[in-house]
Design goal:
Blueprint (H helix, E strand, L loop, with lengths): L5 E6 L8 E6 L21 H6 L4 H32 L4 H27 L9 H6 L1 H11 L7 H33 L3 H34 L3 H25 L15 H9 L2 H31 L6 H23 L4 H18 L8 H15 L2 H20 L4 H29 L10 H11 L1 H14 L6 H19 L1
Antiparallel strand pairs: 1-2
Helix pairs in contact: 2-6, 2-7, 2-8, 3-6, 3-15, 5-6, 5-8, 6-14, 6-15, 7-8, 7-11, 7-14, 10-14, 10-15, 10-16, 10-17, 11-13, 12-13, 12-14, 12-17, 14-15, 14-18
Length: 499
């Protein structure tokens, strides 16, 4: 590989003992700073003082509570959406599955649009917090409507389901994209960002556990023998909780990092900047592949326990043990990132996921205890994935500002969410195609070939996806030293604007 030719600009500034050299490639090659400035001795000024202050425990808890609230919808739909639309609402299974798939893809395309809108919002509450609270009440109402069963024929119900489900997902994105972006502007400190996202996903895992455990009990309690009566009541309760939680988030968090004041407003420029940002492109591919890994295992688990192991009663405990392990892994993330760079840690963990997932291919169906042990270990390894990834998205947003002089935090997160939804849709398609290839028959005895493909979807397929994610991570170059230099340069620019 040839040595790039650089045109160099020397910018000297005092932070007691420090001089920073910033360079721009004549060939516009990706430039990763390697300086490690003495940030402890630097004296931040103005807004930068607020941006580099460590976040309080109260603010971290408030932010983490937000993902607990969002999981009243995300987990409800992921865990119970299909069975509600087929067994309660009364849709044909193929029609219901097709609706969920098409809606997920359409919703994925709405995310970058919301990111562009949020990045251009200006209010006394900041760019992102108004959207979080403003969408909470409509989301609560649409949640009730989506899980209400109208007295229509099949075609009428299908139209109703498409309408209410897509509206719910759009409003969900209106709140969730700004919420995700909020962590990127609450602090400029890399360790704080990792810790903040650990709080977020612990809240998310807690919300998911509450939903998977409580929802069937509440539906039965309010609906009795008629679950169609119980579902809207349950969603109304969840909606009230979500409105209260989003108010908690908005009132107890602050946006400290703003885009450069001279930044032009152009969504197309935001998109062009993202595609010129190599670290973001790597993260886009990484999010897609990791979501394929996760969705393959999650969606196949019920089939695996029911038809391969022959213990349908263990589906709940199997998934619950995984959820608890995810939360534990997320809690351990800040401790691990003190010793290992985020990309290197992610690489190690995904390599472990590949090995552990592949082991399911050789575990005998009667070794239930061993299956649970491996499932918990996979959860521990995947738990840090979300805090690490979202902290890396914040780094990518900083790098965009560093390289192009423009900041598009919400667009960065929205595009990442876009890739995750595409990854989930791709995994769902792979599962459906695999089962169709071996003539899977629901609720009946399965052939050896069917059990074999279910085992592959539970083991070798996610293992292969996890290995691909490791290969993708080899292309990611924003390590801790590089981000220290990026943060110092951005601090210098912001301080200069205030002089």
């Amino acid at each position: 590989m040839g040595v790039p030719v650089y045109r160099c600009h020397y910018v000297t500034f005092m932070s007691r003992h420090m001089t920073t050299l910033t360079c721009r490639s004549l060939r516009r090659e990706e430039h990763y700073p390697t300086d490690s400035p003495d940030r402890e001795n630097a004296a931040p000024q103005g807004n930068e003082m607020a941006a580099t202050d460590r976040l309080s425990l109260r603010e971290k808890i408030a932010y983490g509570a937000g993902d607990l609230g969002f999981n009243f919808y995300w987990t409800t739909i992921s865990a119970f959406g299909l069975i509600f639309f087929t067994d309660v609402f009364g849709l044909d299974p193929l029609a219901a599955g097709t609706m969920l798939l098409i809606s997920r893809v359409l919703d994925a395309f709405a995310d970058p649009i919301m990111g562009a809108v949020a990045d251009r919002t200006r209010s006394r509450w900041g760019r992102f917090r108004p959207w979080i609270f403003g969408a909470a009440a409509p989301m609560a109402m649409l949640g009730v409507l989506c899980f209400f069963t109208p007295p229509f024929d099949h075609d009428g119900k299908l139209v109703y389901a498409y309408l209410t489900y897509n509206l719910l997902m759009i409003v969900y994105s209106i709140a969730n994209i700004p919420y995700s972006a909020l962590s990127g502007v609450m602090s400029a400190d890399g360790q704080d960002r990792t810790t903040l996202n650990s709080f977020r996903f612990v809240g998310g895992f807690l919300g998911g556990t509450i939903v998977t455990y409580a929802t069937p009990l509440l539906v039965k309690s309010f609906g009795g023998a008629n679950p169609a009566q119980g579902w809207p009541i349950v969603m109304a309760i969840y909606g009230i909780a979500v409105v209260a939680i989003m108010a908690l988030v908005v009132l107890n968090t602050r946006e400290r990092i703003n885009p450069p004041p001279q930044q032009a407003s152009s969504p197309w420029r935001d998109i062009r900047d993202l595609f010129g940002n190599k670290p973001w492109l790597v993260l886009f591919g990484l999010a897609l592949v990791i979501m394929v890994t996760i969705t393959l295992r999650m969606a196949t688990s019920a089939y695996y326990m029911r038809y391969v192991v022959g213990r349908e009663d263990l589906i709940g405990p199997f998934l619950t043990s995984y959820g608890v392990a995810l939360a534990a892994g997320a809690l351990l993330t800040p401790m691990m990132t003190k010793w290992i760079d985020k990309p290197r840690l992610m690489m190690i963990l995904m390599g472990a996921v590949a090995i552990l997932s592949a082991s399911f291919f050789v575990i005998p169906p009667d070794q239930i205890g061993l299956m649970f042990v491996v499932q918990v270990l996979i959860g521990l390894c995947l738990g840090p994935k979300s805090p690490l990834a979202y902290a890396m998205y914040a780094d990518a947003a900083d790098y965009t500002e560093y390289r192009f002089g423009r900041r598009a935090t919400a667009m960065t997160y929205a595009a990442a969410t876009f890739s995750q939804k595409l990854g989930g849709a791709l995994a769902s398609y792979l599962i459906g195609a695999g089962l169709k290839a071996v003539d899977y028959v629901a609720n009946g005895p399965q052939t050896v070939e069917t059990k074999g493909i279910i085992t592959v979807l539970m083991s070798l397929a996610p293992a292969a996806a996890a290995l691909i994610s490791v290969a993708v991570l080899l292309l990611y170059k924003l390590d801790k030293a590089s981000m220290s230099a990026v943060s110092a340069e951005l601090a210098r620019r912001r301080a200069a604007l205030e002089e």
